[in-house]
Amino acid sequence: MNLEKNKENKNENKSEIDIVFISDTHQFHEELILPNKIDILIHSGDFTYKRKKKKNQVKIFNNWLGKLDKEKKIEHKIIIMGNHENWFKYRRMKTKLKWLSNGIYLQNQTYNAYGLTIFGSSHKPRKKYSKLIPNSAQIIAIHAPPKGILDMQYNDKSRGNKTIYDCICDLNKSKKMQRINAFGHNHEGYGIQFSEEANCFFVNSTTNGLPSNIPIWFKAIRENDHFKFFLIQSGCRIDFIERIGRTHKFKRIQNSNLILNQNSNLNQNSNQNLNQNSNSNSNSNQNSNQNSNSNSNSNSNSN
Ligand SMILES: [Zn+2]
């Protein structure tokens, strides 16, 4: 979708916005269980996987985005590039927009939905990156994790990037409003962590290349000229699928359990959950890590 269309779009003054974060779907997008009502879907990169037939994988992904239009009527579907799409960045922007015609492809650009400013980048930031992110950005999607946050692999090595964390802390100095930094890349780090210093929810929304981690769902509530965020759902579907070693082959396990954290209940009225969620956001990382640890068979070397 052309960003110019966004300018013409008269976004209504919605007071509550449902935002769902996914990433690292690696062609397993069909397996995701998405909430029925989504206003904004944000995919933080790595929608392709195998080295061959990349163009065809983009087409498959774009078709799925189109299907979501019919099934879920999601008004804004934001896509950024992950390291698996690095080849993509050398294509002309016109080509990228054509190939991802059913979504909104961002590459160091901002997008406005319902008065909420979203900045989308790609895999890793370059120097002077902070100047690219506008102060008004409340949601920042970058594929790589910030240093020290949900960035540890099972081998105790960090995949995080210090520049990203510093940039988001700097934003908090100039305009003190809550933010979400959405990312993926480190498949082992799925979860949510709130930083007081950055006044930011850090959301590792990876599905681990597998549909075991469920999409992370926040509700944004309008408060004057900005929004406050409340966690509605995160967690893991353990035993659903197991990755076997380093061969990138997958085996489906029968009788899977769906395990959601205490905030999750798709059938409950989300308004009832808001207070509970705002108090329990600090626990969400703990819950998510517990869940993702239980998925420790899913070792990966090519995030
Ligand atoms: Zn990945």
Automatic annotation (TrEMBL):
<feature type="region of interest" description="Disordered">
    <location>
        <begin position="263"/>
        <end position="303"/>
    </location>
</feature>
<protein>
    <submittedName>
        <fullName>Metallophosphoesterase</fullName>
    </submittedName>
</protein>
<dbReference type="InterPro" id="IPR029052">
    <property type="entry name" value="Metallo-depent_PP-like"/>
</dbReference>
<dbReference type="Pfam" id="PF00149">
    <property type="entry name" value="Metallophos"/>
</dbReference>
<dbReference type="InterPro" id="IPR004843">
    <property type="entry name" value="Calcineurin-like_PHP"/>
</dbReference>
<feature type="domain" description="Calcineurin-like phosphoesterase">
    <location>
        <begin position="19"/>
        <end position="188"/>
    </location>
</feature>
<dbReference type="InterPro" id="IPR051693">
    <property type="entry name" value="UPF0046_metallophosphoest"/>
</dbReference>
<dbReference type="GO" id="GO:0016787">
    <property type="term" value="F:hydrolase activity"/>
</dbReference>
